[in-house]
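User: Hey, quick favor. My workstation is busy. Could you predict this chain's structure for me?
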Amino acid sequence: MDSVFRRVRIQSRLLRQCLAECLGVYVLIVFGCGAAAQVTTSENTKGQYLSINLGFALGTTFGVYVSRGVSGAHLNPAVTLSLCMLGRHPWRTLPFYVFFQVFGAFLAAATVALQYYDAIMHFSNGQLTVTGPTATAAIFATYPADYLSLWSGFVDQVIGTGMLLVCILAVEDRRNTRIPAEMAPPLFGLVVLVIGMSMSVNCGGALNPARDLGPRLYSYIAGWGEQVFWAGGGWWWVPLVAPCVGALVGSVVYVLLIEAHHPELDLHLEKADQCQTVDNKLALELEGVELDLNSPKGCPNEGQEGKKAASGKGEEG
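Assistant: No problem, here it is.
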């Protein structure tokens, strides 16, 4: 099997990253929308609203674990856009990341629909509707409450996604709090959970254009029809635009209020720490390069294996 895996191994770094984003989002949406399907079709007898929040929170946690070491686990076009704006991700990869994030969400929605097909048809009496007492479209995409205006919904998503990015940047900011890398995914899940528990009653708390657009496209194709775009006064564009605006606002707020004011000494320590960390992404990308932790800066040194082999042969001789 090892020989087979070596033959199919993808050499393109960007393609590996995109596939990781696709699978990470797929995991997130399968658990999140799967929880929504279970709660909806069981009429709250097999879970409640908290179950949906937990589904998306734990889906986020494991989606990050799946893709973090390969792509950085953005899992959200708004996050990718913000990181590009901050200069922490190349702009040229943005459209590729976004496409695969949306595609992963689309595939996840199809998986949930396949798994819950009989339950959905039983609950809805065979009618795939977007609104009404037996509506099932909200299993896949978000829709506003009856009292919510488009403007209020837009503000809701800006605030929610802004808080998401503030917390994400805080977790990743090693000059603020040195959180172990393996603890980041569950913390991201907790962020999604607390936002869902406090900011999702108005319109479902999408916070993620891919999370909403991919499943919405699937529901349109699968039989729910054009109403998935026109329901809620043409709500569909709000979960696409507002999270991007909110993510940019949240990123700027965190950088201006916290990150920009770290002492320069901390900045130098952070760079040295990143250089010495074996698990750093640079070490993952450099093949045939080792980190010499005994050097003054612990930076990568090429050809270390060759030098060791040569010295070993000299000792044997």
